[in-house]
Amino acid sequence: MRILIVEDEPDLLSALSQALREDGYAVDPATDGREGLFKAKSITYDAIILDLMLPQLDGWGVLQELRRAGHTVPVLILTARDALPDRVRGLDAGADDYLVKPYQLKELLARLRALIRRSAGKSSSVLQLGPVAVDTAAKRILKDGQPVVLTAREYALVEFLALHRGKMLSRTEIYDHLFDEEDDSLSNLLDVHVCNVRKKLGKNFILTRRGQGYTLGEGNPGAPGGDDDV
C-alpha cells in the first residue's frame, strides 16, 4: 500500500515515514500543502495522512481541492488541533478520520488499515482466499492454517491483490501501489516478488495475463495461469 504523508515538521515526518515503511508501506513525503496537493493529484495513493497547519497551503485547502477535483482517496487528518469545531470541520470537509497529536503509533496504524479496508469495500481484517488467509491486522499469511513467511513487499503484493480480488490489475497499477518514489521504476522487482509468492503459496496463486496484468487464482491447482501465461 502506498501512503502520502503531508507534514512540515521534519522529525515527525521522518519518524512516521520510517515507521510506516517498517510496517510494509511504500511512503512518499511532502513538506508543504502545495507539494502534497500536487502529489495527491498526480499519484494514486491508498491513503493520505494530512497535517492541517502547513506552509504554502494549509490542510483544509489541500482537502477541499482534492474533494473538489473528485479524488476519493481516504484522508486521515493528523494534527495538534484538538478542539471539537476543528474535528467537525475536518470530517465535514471530507476527511475520513481525525487523529490528534500526540498519538500512539499502534492506533494510527490500526486506523490506517481500517481506512484502506473500507475504501476497498472490505469489512473484515481477515481476507479468505481459498486455503490462504490474509490477516491485514497482524500482517501475516496463513495457508491451511499454517503461517507462511513472506517479506514485507511480498505481503504487500498479496494484500493488494486480495483487496482487489476479482480484478485484473496492470503492472503499472501494482507497481504504483507497492513502491514509492525512491524505488527504481525500471527494475524487475515486481517480477521477483510475484515469483517468490508463487513459490510460497502455489504456482497458480497469482495468475498472469499477457498484456493485461495480474489477478488472484487463490491457489487453485486446476486454475490456468502462473508462469506459463507470462
Task: Give an overview in words.
The protein is of the alpha/beta class and about 230 residues long. The chain has 8 helices and 11 strands. The strands form 3 sheets. A 5-stranded parallel β-sheet has the order 2-1-3-4-5, with helices on both faces. β3, α3 and β4 form a beta-alpha-beta unit. The longest helix has 15 residues. The radius of gyration is 18 Å and the shape is globular. The relative contact order is 0.11.
Set out the fold topology.
Elements lengths: L1 E5 L3 H13 L3 E5 L2 H10 L4 E4 L8 H10 L6 E5 L4 H9 L4 E4 L4 H15 L6 E4 L2 E4 L4 E4 L2 E3 L3 H12 L7 H8 L10 H13 L4 E4 L3 E4 L14
Parallel strand pairs: 1-2, 1-3, 3-4, 4-5
Antiparallel strand pairs: 6-7, 7-8, 8-9, 10-11
Helix pairs in contact: 2-3, 6-8
